[in-house]
Design a protein that fits this description.
Blueprint: H1 3-22, E1 35-38, E2 42-61, E3 91-95, E4 100-103, E5 112-114, E6 123-124, E7 131-132, E8 141-143, E9 152-172, H2 179-185, E10 193-200, H3 213-231, E11 240-250, E12 253-257, E13 263-267, E14 272-274, H4 282-293
Amino acid sequence: MSQDEAGDLNDALSALEAWRGARSWARVAVASAKEAVPVGPRQVYLSTFYEMRRIEYALQAASSRPDTEDPRPDPWAQPIEQPDEAKEHHRVSLPLSGRLHLDCGLCFASGDVECATCQGEGSIGGGKSRRRCPSCRGAGRQDCESCRGSGGVYGRPVAVSEIKRCERMQISEASDLPVDALLELLDEEREGDVVQSHESERITEVPRRRGGYRDAARDKELDAIVAKLARDPGVPEGGQIRRQRLEVRAVPAWRVTLNDEQTVFVYGTPPRVSPKRALQSPLGKLVSLFIRSD
């Protein structure tokens, strides 16, 4: 056994011991094994910070509905500046001049809304105790509180810019993992160590690295994944990308051949084992049967 192979075996046995320690009464200790082959996949995260803009209004009731709404300002035409390194949820507001005559958005310019007391029925109670609703006097509708029944409002516009973040993740080099392990690693929980990170205005590929054939093959697969993530980073319509961050994490995982020729996989942080019912103690098996019978 080479030094690297011995190191892999020791790392795998340490992971198995950490896994057993979480429920030592239900799991069997593994003191030695024939071999441990690294099969660790990589989690590839693309985080995108983007800017969303909108116009908010400080409203007050108008005496009437407008014949034609005043034109609404374009939030992207306003001189709002976000810091280059603005973090998620950072918000900048810019009050604009003027006052706009608008349709009321709460009642859709009708001037009335469904009565909240009777839910539009016009009456409350049931059976012999049913009576006319005192709030709407049986109409089932009430004047809109926003426009006070006029159907129109005045709005003082405020342009708002907010930084938001979305994230996409995919797994690379996972062909040797069992399906149950792969599904767990796809739940977007970060595992293992960061082996590569890069931040830029836009990321479309993994920065080039020197290396042999294995590194070149790995880069090719990572490039394909990053290109796919870059095509659809998850930014909603209307958002403008400000910067992106790529993070590649190596997930510790080994295929372990035990002394009795049984094969198990130990993977992740904290360590888990596949198959799920492998390496159970007699008490662990009994408990598993009892739980399964429920």
